[in-house]
Amino acid sequence: SQQGEEDPQALSIQEGENATMNCSYKTSINNLQWYRQNSGRGLVHLILIRSNEREKHSGRLRVTLDTSKKSSSLLITASRAADTASYFCATDAPGAGANSKLTFGKGITLSVRP
Amino acid sequence: DTEVTQTPKHLVMGMTNKKSLKCEQHMGHRAMYWYKQKAKKPPELMFVYSYEKLSINESVPSRFSPECPNSSLLNLHLHALQPEDSALYLCASSRRLAGGRGRRDTQYFGPGTRLTVL
Predict the structure, then answer these.
(1) In the predicted structure, residue A108 carries a pLDDT above the cut 80
(2) Which end of chain B has the smaller Cβ count within 10 Å, N or C?
(3) pLDDT tens digits, residue range A51-82?
(4) pLDDT, tens only, B24-33
(5) Mutation for A interface: B25, B107, B108, B116, most A CBs within 10 A
(6) How far apart are CA A65 and CA A57, in angstroms?
(7) Least Cα separation, residue B17 to chain A (angstroms)
(8) Residue B106 to residue A33, Cβ atoms within 8 A
């Protein structure tokens, strides 16, 4: 079963606008990661935020984490048509080494109109 | 080199065929993963290898048989598949399975093999 649930499921914006995507999860985590996937291709790791961090930046990306609400948000500023893709949050929950694993949410489809 | 390569890119097979998917990385990673992804769905973990040993099998049917011949290679052997097994099969690797205090390293994904079972 999915740990992360992204919101919204689909987002369409104009180039230059900011895109905000949210992820909620159910259990405690070690870290939360965001990935991007272009149509039918492999996933690209965007950013990882650890459970003791509240905000992290990487280029045009800003991720926040609220462990009390079990939620995270991914903000892409000044969006570009090339940002069009599916975005997944993935949680790494605590567990005995070999049993810990990354669990992906359902994903958000972002369309950036030129 | 931060690349995970997968071959073939596309594979069409019949239900009686035997085929293999291959994955390779030269980043010195010691954890490797197979995921299955259906259209418009998230990746689902199938197998995890750590230091060339099978660490996790997510109750995958025996018609899927993983193999890790060395630290750089990961294979997925396919036999007697069903049409519902058609999907994108993704390989990933990470530096290790679990870092200190259970933290996981970033997973690097390959481009995937698009499998169609007729």
Answers:
(1) yes
(2) N
(3) 999 999 999 999 999 999 999 999 999 999 99
(4) 999 999 999 9
(5) B107
(6) 12
(7) 24
(8) yes
